[in-house]
Each structure stands twice: as C-alpha cells, then as structure tokens.
Write the structure tokens for this entry.
Amino acid sequence: MEDARAIAALGWISIYRSGVWKPRTRPNAFEGNGEEALRWLRRVRKETGLLTTVEVANAEHVELALKYGVDILWIGARTTVNPFSVQEIADALKGMDIPVMVKNPVNPDLNLWIGALERVNRAGITRMMAVHRGFSNYESTRFRNSPRWELPIQLMTFAPDLPVICDPSHISGKRALVGEVAQKAMDLGMHGLMIETHPDPDRAWSDAEQQVTPAQLQEILNKLQFRERTSDNAVFNNHLAQLRRIVDSIDEELIQILAKRMKVIEKIGEYKRDNNITIFQLERWNEILDTRSALGSNLDLDLDFITRIMMEVHKESIQLQTELMNRDDEKQD
Ligand code: PEP
Ligand code: MN
C-alpha cells in the first residue's frame, strides 16, 4: 500500500503492476503471496484509483485474477516460451473481455512471441499489448537481459497497431541503468514503460537490484525526453528528405559493391574448385578481419560493427563457394 500510494501520487502512472505468483529461477525463493495478495490489489485499486495488473501462468491464475477484479493480465517471459501454457491461459480467457499483455519469450524467437499473441487473440481478446523485457544470455553483459532491440522493432513492423511497451527493469537488472533503457524505448517509439518500484528496494524479496523507489521513478520519468514521431515543420521535413535521399543513394552503391564483390568470390570459388583447394583458409580470414578492422577504426567506425559486417559478408561468400563446389560434385556424379 505504501508503494501504491507513492506511485499514485506521482501522477504519471496509470497501472499498478505486481507479481502475485512469481516464477523464480531457483526453488526456495519468494514465490508471491497468491490469492491473499489479490485482496491487497483490490484495495490498491479502491484506495488509489490505479488499474491493477498481475502475471498469470495458468488457468487457475486467470480464474482467480478475474474473480478479484484485476484489470489487466500479463503473460510472463517464462510462460510465453511454452505454447501449452499459453494455450491453457487463452482457453481460460475465452469469452472474457480483459486486456492482456504478452512479454517476449526468454529466448530471442520473434515467432514464438507472435504465436503467443495470436493464441490470446484467437480466444477473443482484442485489447492486447506486447512487453519487451529483453532476452536471456549466457555471457555476462552490461544488461541482465540482452535488449536485442531489433526484435521488438520487427514486431512493431509486423503488427503496426499493436502497442509495445518496454520493461527496462528486467532488461537492465540494475537500477542505475533503468533510465537509459527507458529513454531508448521512448526513442524507438514504444508506447509505454513497465518499471518495478519498492519503497525500500534493497529489502525487496525479488529482483532487489533493479527496483527503484517511487522518488527515483519520478526522477527517471522527469529526465525522459519524449520525442515526436513526425513533424509538421516543412523546413525540417525537406531537410530530412534530402538527407534520406543521400542515404538512399549510398545504400544503392553499397549493394552494387556487394554484388561486385560476390562476382569476384564466384571466380575465386571456381578457381579453388578447379585446383582442388579448400574453401576456408584461416590465415586469409584473420588477415581480412585485421585489415578491415584497422581500416574501419581509422574511419571512426565501431570495431564490433565492422566485425559483424565482415562476418556476414564472409558467411555469404563461404555459402556461395560451397554451392559451387557441390555443383561440380553433382556434375562428376
Ligand atoms: C516480472 O515482471 O516480475 C517477471 C517475472 O518478469 P519476466 O516475465 O520478464 O521474467
Ligand atoms: Mn521481477
């Protein structure tokens, strides 16, 4: 109640999120207060006017959440991965008129995310929202979950009318990064934010490192820059169109150069085949990586960016040469 009152007082927040059933990675962690906590949520709604939302992972959760008048349901990342569970939830929702949010699955699989949204939609739920909470990764990075921003962007392209919100708390995993991730989400045109708060974050029973106080939330929100998607300013639009035409022609050049490179690769492939030489030579690949990285660095390009591009280009050229070798094998058969 302390958190809910503080959140409501900020004036920014319309929905109160809370886990009544918490999916935990290891057993013996705090797994939520279940049905009892639904009564507390009812009180939050009554006393603060905030709408309430909880995570549901099975049909029983849906039934109880509806019984206690929860306003919005959400399917968590660990549930979205499992079509059986999502279907069970969708079946329990048949004939109900309640908004549902679907978090991305823990693994970076866009179709699995879309599939879960479709299952819920086919149950007759039309008010839906997707939540981007990042993707599990094995290496340790700056973030708890890799944002892989391209995936929510692809989802927004696939379903332009579907609101997509961001959960910077679970992406960042630490409170100091929540603001930065939230800003990025706004800059990508996302429609809202889901942020975890606690009156005394270090004492939170789950995900303590990523929780912020309501006052810190206020600070994060005050700092956010909300940029317009488009502008009516003719001067701005003309200048932007002019810059975009330059980018168009550079992209055209880039593609022509890639095609030219592939033609030479084809010649190399045929030559290696006719002389019985392997497609891949480690020394040559190392030399390509070294020289291209050095060139890129001299031109102020990010090293990781150049490496990724060269790896893609190289993959394609290996692919083409493999096809050429196999084509020859078929002829000899
Ligand atoms: C949560 O929102 O508290 C949660 C469990 O998150 P996720 O489903 O993204 O792991
Ligand atoms: Mn959490």
